[in-house]
Specification:
Order of helices and strands: HEHHHEE
CATH superfamily: Ribosomal protein L17
CATH topology: 50s Ribosomal Protein L17, Chain: A
Number of helices: 4
Distance between the termini: 37 Å
Largest sheet: 3 strands, antiparallel
Number of strands: 3
Strand order of the largest sheet: 1-3-2
Structural class: alpha+beta
Shape: globular
Strand content: 15-25%
């Protein structure tokens, strides 16, 4: 039985799933919006929201915690200097997921995830 087990597996083991979240979060924070499949976007939303919440603290400890997941220093600087101050008044919901349509090759539902 699967009671109490939340989250999608996305056909990956745990290390590959974490690498996917880290790579997509880095791209989202760098670009502001990315296009991916709907299940990946829904899972990425919680991951990025927790990163932004941590970055709102602004201390060196928070910066080092973020650096464990985001390995691009330029993106971390952007997160702390631009994105986190912009989200200071928000209590959550830093990202938005919009359905775009279906992908032509495999009919997968494609979504756009962007920073609010």
């Amino acid at each position: 039985m699967r009671h109490g087990k939340s989250g999608r597996k996305l056909n990956r083991n745990s290390s590959a799933r974490l690498a996917l979240y880290r790579a997509q979060a880095t791209a989202l924070l760098r670009e502001g919006r990315i296009q991916t499949t709907l299940p990946k976007a829904k899972e990425l939303k919680g991951f990025v929201d927790s990163l932004i919440t941590t970055a709102k603290g602004g201390t060196l400890h928070h910066r080092r915690q973020i650096m464990q997941d985001i390995h691009d220093k330029a993106v971390v600087v952007k997160l702390f200097d631009e994105i986190a101050p912009r989200m200071k008044e928000r209590q959550g919901g830093y990202t938005r997921v919009l359905k775009i349509g279906v992908r032509r090759g495999d009919s997968a539902t494609v979504a756009l995830i962007e920073l609010v």
